[in-house]
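Table S2 (continued). Query chain:
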Amino acid sequence: MSYVQLWIESYQCILYNAYLLERTGRIILSLWNSQICIGYEAIRIYKHKILNPLHPLMRGFDDRFYAPHSRHTTIMREDVDKHDDLLTLSISNDAGIYIVAEKSGRQFFITGHAEYDRDTLANEYYRDEVRGLNPELPENYFPDDDRRAIPHFMWRSHANLLFQNWLNYYVYQQTPFDLKDLITLEKPQKKS
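Corresponding output:
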């Protein structure tokens, strides 16, 4: 996929997310949208830590947990910290920022792939191998680094909690029954 096509698809995702935000007042942004909204493939499973264990989105998480990443990009924590309306919830020493929340609870930015199934990274690895890209073997994924072995699936419980907490605390409990009662986001004022 070319970078132009990637940006076109990302822009379409952003437009769709803006539509969802306007309709429901709640969205959760994935990897590419997160990196575009806040500012070469490498597929790995990284260890993460929670920075704000009392935040509703993080309820039930282990102190340390794993999550897959499949891009070679990083969002620096100091860049996120410059924005008073954002709160970093989870980071990895190796992968950087993982979960960022807008303090209003209307937007969450996820830079990894909690939604991946057990074999998603393996399929990406095999795809790149067939393309002759000589991908690195995903870290912390295949038992004993044997690419023929059934991959470890060590992010399933955190992924379930992440989406369950988001739906429960930020969609179900905070979205009014009648969407006409939803408080709309203020539109930015045009500078003259």
